[in-house]
Design brief:
Oligomer: heterodimer
Helix content of chain A: over 70%
Order of helices and strands of chain A: HHHHHHHEEHHHHH
Structural class of chain B: mainly alpha
Distance between the termini of chain A: 13 Å
Helix content of chain B: 55-70%
Number of strands of chain A: 2
Shape of chain B: elongated
Largest sheet of chain B: none
Radius of gyration of chain B: 18 Å
Strand order of the largest sheet of chain A: 1-2
Strand content of chain A: under 5%
Shape of chain A: globular
Largest sheet of chain A: 2 strands, antiparallel
Number of helices of chain B: 5
């Protein structure tokens, strides 16, 4: 009621400002904007979770599409590595998105809260490097999931071979499902799976994660679009805000205390997770 | 393969974002009339998508195509472009792979393209 009495442009303007801030801190904290967007906007804005999830997917998608070309051209992402993982993830993303519309809003809020808590736990410690190499599996060999990664920063070449591919495919099935259901960007989950489970070098994992995310989010976005859950008044200010904020964030990266920003953002995410849990269990309206 | 994909995604997403910004400007500046008046939005955006469609008369599925003359649904052209960039780039890569006889990767790319076409077709609405 209160929201309905407010001038229509107040909330989109506030959404643009918050998205702009998300874009800045996402770069400084090294966290994808998509995973910040949904819990923060769902927690503190009057929009229904359906519209916020759709906007979150499109924010993550536009960010990934903008970054992917440079990463692929620079050899910092691998299409052959991402192809099978994105295929599995996009199928389950459609399933997750479709199922989400059959769930009661309270259950979805509670599940979002649990997912954000898991994401914060994963993000609290960044993966430091790839898992020690073990013998590659048959699928990895058949799909030629190997190569030489050239790190432009250090000038070093690293020979890599994906391992535990069946487990990696299963993990990406789960990641796709979660991304589709909650509209979250999935970089927070993609990178640990690629590095710690599959043994991919960290920088290659970060770059390839963006490509995978763009395919997964594209598949899920269509489900939201067909359901009538896409509101341009939420989507466009969010996309523009996050993209402009990210540009400013890149400029501020050299001067800002990135570690402190990262921890502060994770604490904010924790608050948003508890708020979603509170809403889900009827403790907070 | 990576470079072909990158070039297509780059061009496509730039086009999509330009379309999105232009159509949104037409929307908020009132250059075209929207289907749902802007003043009505705060009363609707707290509803679930299902209730929103029922109460506002908003189109679901591909119904937005018939509403492109209205500024709120003109935005869907940019959104749909954003959501078809990956498919377009995959199809271009598929042609390249087929020409080189890379059957395994071509099969993976074709499977992915079919999944994206299925998602875009709205088959998930059937339940």
């Amino acid at each position: 009621m209160e929201a309905a009495a407010t001038a229509w442009w107040i909330w989109p303007l506030a959404l643009f400002a918050v998205s702009f801030a998300i874009g800045i801190v996402a770069v400084l904290a090294g966290i994808g904007g998509g995973v910040l967007f949904v819990p923060i906007v769902a927690g503190f804005f009057p929009f229904h979770l359906d519209f916020v999830r759709a906007a979150g997917l499109l924010v993550a998608l536009s960010g990934a599409l903008s970054a992917s070309p440079r990463l692929l051209q620079g050899g910092l992402a691998s299409l052959p590595l991402g192809l099978p993982l994105a295929l599995v993830g996009s199928i389950t993303a459609i399933a997750g998105a479709s199922l989400s519309f059959a769930l009661p809003a309270d259950a979805l809020q509670a599940a979002l809260g649990v997912t954000i808590l898991a994401a914060v736990a994963l993000m609290w410690r960044r993966p430091a490097g790839a898992a020690p190499s073990i013998r590659p599996d048959a699928i990895s060999e058949a799909l030629r999931l190997h190569g030489v990664f050239h790190d432009p920063a250090s000038g070093q070449d690293t020979v890599w071979r994906a391992q535990r591919t069946p487990a990696g495919l299963a993990a990406f099935a789960l990641i796709g499902f979660i991304a589709g259901m909650f509209g979250l960007g999935a970089g927070w989950a993609n990178v640990p799976v690629l590095t710690l489970l599959m043994g991919v070098p960290l920088k290659l994992a970060v770059g390839t994660s963006g490509f995978i995310l763009s395919v997964i989010d594209t598949a899920a976005a269509w489900v939201y679009l067909h359901r009538g859950a896409v509101l341009p008044m939420l989507v466009v200010p969010s996309i523009i805000g996050v993209m402009l904020g990210a540009k400013l964030g890149v400029r501020a990266l050299a001067r800002a205390p990135a570690r402190i920003v990262r921890r502060a953002v994770l604490v904010l995410l924790l608050l948003a997770a508890f708020r979603a849990l509170g809403r889900g269990f009827g403790l907070w309206t | 393969m990576d470079l072909i994909y990158a070039r297509w995604i780059d061009a496509w997403s730039r086009l999509a974002l330009a379309a999105l910004v232009a159509s949104f400007a037409a929307y908020v500046l009132g250059i075209l009339d929207p289907l749902i008046p802007l003043e009505r939005l705060p009363a609707l955006w707290g509803l679930s998508a299902e209730q929103f469609v029922a109460q506002s008369g908003a189109p679901a599925g591909w119904g937005w195509l018939a509403r492109l003359g209205q500024s709120d649904y003109l935005n869907f052209a940019g959104i749909a472009l954003l959501a078809t960039g990956t498919l377009a780039a995959y199809l271009r890569v598929l042609v390249w792979l087929a020409g080189r006889g890379e059957r395994l990767f071509a099969a993976l790319v074709l499977a992915q393209a079919l999944v994206l076409v299925a998602a875009a077709s709205g088959f998930a609405l059937l339940h």
